[in-house]
Amino acid sequence: MGELVAFIAKSLVDHPEQVEVSETYGQQSIIVELRVAPEDMGKVIGKQGRIAKAIRTVVRAVAIKENKKVIVEIID
């Protein structure tokens, strides 16, 4: 899941080398934390959070196929 989030984020930002993704595994879910450069934060979130919502939707669709629950957090 982290690789997918990293790929999408690197495609959107101006500084792809500063994209960091970490995964935390829990009992029933995976938490994916995404960190980007401060000036790229708006590109990842989008107007009214539309891009962030789209990223979460794509990751959730992949997770359903694997019977997992994934939470994507965007951290500054």
Automatic annotation (TrEMBL):
Single annotated GO MF: RNA binding
Annotated CDD domains: KH-II_YlqC-like (cd22533)
InterPro entries: KH_dom-like_a/b (IPR015946), KH_sf_prok-type (IPR009019), KhpA (IPR020627)
Alphabetized PROSITE patterns for the sequence: KH_TYPE_1
Keyword Phosphoprotein among UniProt keywords: no
Pfam family, one: KH_KhpA-B
Compartments (UniProt record): Cytoplasm
GO cellular component: cytoplasm
Major localization class: cytoplasm
Keywords of this entry: Cell shape, Cell wall biogenesis/degradation, Chaperone, Cytoplasm, RNA-binding
UniProt GO BP: cell wall organization; peptidoglycan biosynthetic process; regulation of cell shape
Protein role: A probable RNA chaperone. Forms a complex with KhpB which binds to cellular RNA and controls its expression. Plays a role in peptidoglycan (PG) homeostasis and cell length regulation.
Assembly, per entry: Forms a complex with KhpB.
The family this protein is said to belong to: Belongs to the KhpA RNA-binding protein family.
HAMAP family for this protein: KhpA
The protein's name: RNA-binding protein KhpA
Source organism: Filifactor alocis (strain ATCC 35896 / CCUG 47790 / D40 B5)
Taxonomic classification: Bacteria, Bacillati, Bacillota, Clostridia, Peptostreptococcales
